[in-house]
Amino acid sequence: MTPEITDILKNLPDNPGVYQFFDAQQKLIYVGKAKVLKNRVRSYFNNIKAHHGKTKALVRNICDIKYILVESEQDALLLENSLIKQYLPRYNIMLKDDKTYPWICIKNERFPRVFSTRKMVRDGSQYFGPYASGKMIYTLLDFIQTIFPLRNCNLSLSEENVDKKKFKVCLEYHLGNCSGPCEKYESEEEYNAKIAQIKNILKGNISTVIQHLKQMMQQHVEQLEFEKAQIIKEKLEVLANYQSKSTVVSPTIKNVDVFSIVSKEEEAYVNYLKVVDGAIVQGHTLEVKKKLEETEEEILLLAVVELRERYQSDAPEIIVPFLPELQLTGVEWTVPQRGDKKKLLELSERNAKFFGLEKKKSATINKPLEKSLRILEQMKKDLRLSELPVHIECFDNSNIQGAFPVSACVVFKNAVPSKKDYRIFNIKTVEGPDDFASMEEVILRRYKRMLEEAQDLPQLIVIDGGKGQLSAALESLEKLNLRGKIAIIGIAKRLEEIYFPGDSVPLYLDKRSESLKVIQHMRNEAHRFGITAHRNRRSKALTQTRLKDIEGVGEQTIQILLRHFKSVKKVGEASFEELEALLGKTRAEAVFKGLSKE
Q1: Which of 194, 348, 460, 591 has the smallest number of CB atoms closer than 10 Å to its CB?
Q2: Is 127 helix (H, G, I), strand (E, B) or coil?
Q3: What is the C-alpha end-to-end distance of the chain, expressed in Å?
Q4: Which of 132, 74, 130, 78 is nearest to 105 (CA)?
Q5: From CA 148, how far away is CA 140, in angstroms rounded?
Q6: pTM, 2 dp
């Protein structure tokens, strides 16, 4: 501990506040809150050996300490949360929510529009949410539009523009999706009354909206306006249907927030449920990555502040699994022992546990080895194989009208490319463009050598081509007595048909199938690898032709020239002196005359 740190610790006040630890580069590495700053900060430096490993690492890196005094512990909590979000200190817990969640915006304008957005603009508009599901938000907007037709245009409907009749009603008006405020078919007072009802729905106060609509319907009935009354009745039915889909808890529970926590060694999950008028209107689970020995209370309090701010909750009661020491102004903590509130807390805990299990399952799926095993199991099932295709080989031919023919063999192990095992075969026995004969030659050469060298054979062979190429490959397997011992299929490019030996009817795998994606990946790799080899062979042959045509220049001279100058073009641009220094006078004269001086 440095003398500077010792002096700071001696002079720490007894007040509540927020402390900040900085490293040697004056970078903020930790933020914490304290009821008594002096006691909390000194605790880091007392009995360091007893601390957890991460806390020891934190203390070793502390080179400066600063603090901010506040009025209460609640203020300290709010300030701590704000600083963590602003600076993301290395040793603070991470509230993992990197998504930008959508909100419903009621625009601050005359005849306000209601729409979804992921960007909050501080222009006086009202925002409701955020919503964890995009599907949920569009369902809600569609529901609102059904009950209260609103404009969706971005016209400037100022009083002056409307009075001057600058606008005409559009197709939305004729379809019944808008009441036409642009032509004064709907007054501002009527429009704003709808907006007020929409705000109540978005806040979860559906019962208030239902009561208001019932009063309106009764007024229309008394005035013998039965058509208007019928329209409101239909809206009430839609509202009742929407309300029935909400998770109704108890009509006696009016406005509460519910928080639960499930804590693991490295992370914790905090679930939040917002209850309005006896129904759950919003829910969200926050993943928290631990950094030091944070207690469940510390994590829960940070999550409470974060989620209540995010969801703009002012509920006077918060249901929690244990009673925190910190009191929040205007909020009552409740730890239920029985009844509906206890059931609510248990529901929240189930949500947190389920979220943790889903994260674990997702992490398992994304682990390479587990993912490969899952894909191989699916391939075994889809292709009706007798064993897992851990080792797969795929073949493809490349040539231009029979010239410079090559065949590529790509190898996949555990459903991923094994590039060190890729092979290229120059076709030796086939003349002209004969894919069937080329495939027969390559399969024979490949597996004859593997048998001779006692190499492990693949569990599956994939032939890029239809029934013809597959039959040619089978001929070679028959000669090697391997038919039936190695599974083999062909894939035709046009419709991605999978052909099996002896079966004229192809198999069509689902386009989203992981089995088909692996086969397509192999086929594309074989095609790419084969085309590259074919081009290299053709390019090499064509570039050497001019040198081979020079009398007195043999293969050895050509190799010397290409190694030194890298290309035939640069050989042609070389001076006689350069060529003489490399080849000697006689051969230099032959090359010099034969190339550049034609």
Answers
A1: 194
A2: strand
A3: 84
A4: 130
A5: 12
A6: 0.44
The structure tokens listed for 222 are 């008394």
| Residue 453 Cα distances to 449, 450, 459, angstroms | 6, 5, 17
Query: CB neighbours of 385 closer than 8 A, spacing ≥ 6?
Result: 379, 459, 460, 487
Is it true that the peptide bond before 130 is cis, omega within 30 degrees of 0?
yes
Neighbours of 409 (CB within 10 A): 21
Strand partners, 507: 498
CA 77 to the chain's CA centroid = 32
The pair phi, psi for residue 161, each rounded to 5°, is: -65, -40
How many helices (H) and strands (E) the chain has is answered by 20, 21
Q: Are 351 and 262 in contact (CB under 8 A)?
A: no
Note the helical H segments in 367-482: 368-382, 435-452, 467-479
Residue 514, amino acid: E
Maximal CA-CA distance, the chain: 119
- In sequence order, the β-bridge partners of residue 417 are 412
Q: Mention every residue, 6+ apart, whose C-beta is less than 8 A from residue 196.
A: none
How far is it, in rounded angstroms, from Cα 362 to Cα 381?
22
Strand partners, 409: 395, 423
For residue 543, the one-letter residue type is: T
In tens digits, what is the pLDDT along the chain, a chain of 598 residues?
A: 778 888 888 888 888 888 989 988 888 899 888 888 888 888 888 877 777 777 888 888 888 888 877 777 777 887 787 788 778 888 887 666 545 567 889 999 999 999 988 887 878 888 876 665 666 677 678 778 877 888 989 898 988 888 888 899 998 888 888 989 999 898 999 999 999 888 887 776 666 677 777 888 888 888 888 888 888 888 777 666 665 545 455 667 778 999 999 988 788 899 888 887 766 777 788 888 887 778 888 889 888 988 888 887 888 999 999 998 888 888 899 999 988 888 888 888 888 888 888 777 666 555 666 778 888 999 999 998 989 999 999 998 886 555 668 888 999 998 889 999 999 888 888 776 778 888 999 999 999 999 998 898 999 999 988 888 899 999 999 999 998 889 999 998 777 889 898 888 888 888 888 899 999 999 999 888 888 876 776 666 555 556 666 766 777 787 787 778 767 677 777 888 888 888 888 887 777 777 764 4
CA dihedral sign of residues 56, 58, 64, 67: negative
As a whole number of angstroms, the distance between CA 401 and CA 160 comes to 76
Joined tokens for residue 584:
């000697």
- For the chain, which domains are there? 3-92 (3.40.1440.10), 103-204 (no CATH), 255-364 (3.30.420), 382-537 (3.30.420.340), 549-595 (no CATH)
Amino acid, res. 81: N
Q: Which residues contact 8 (CB under 8 A, 6 or more apart)?
A: 64, 65
Tokens of 287: 């993943």
